[in-house]
Amino acid sequence: MTFAKNDLSQAVVLFLGYGVALSPICDGAKLFEIYGQQKGESLLSDVLRLADEASQISIDWANTSLDAAGIAVHEEMHNRHPYLDSKALDAIAWKFTFDWR
After folding, report:
1. Is this prediction's pTM over 0.70?
2. Which domain of life, per UniProt (predicted)?
3. How far, in Å, CA of 4 to CA of 37, rounded?
């Protein structure tokens, strides 16, 4: 399914609770509430795919701090998905760094 560029970016932010929660959450219900069942399910699938993709980015932990890794993930996901806005990329990097704490 094709979405407006900002729909997917907003879905990433909403799903992860970026800017609202103290740590990343996985709130699929929020997507259904905002977008309805059908569009919410499609967006949820795309958001989960993006989160999984980010989690698989290789980091040289021997030479990279957690902060630097977050920046690297932000940059790599931007290169792979230039349609995602900065806030969505920040949310993805935020989740990545929390997963590695």
Report:
1. yes
2. Bacteria
3. 17
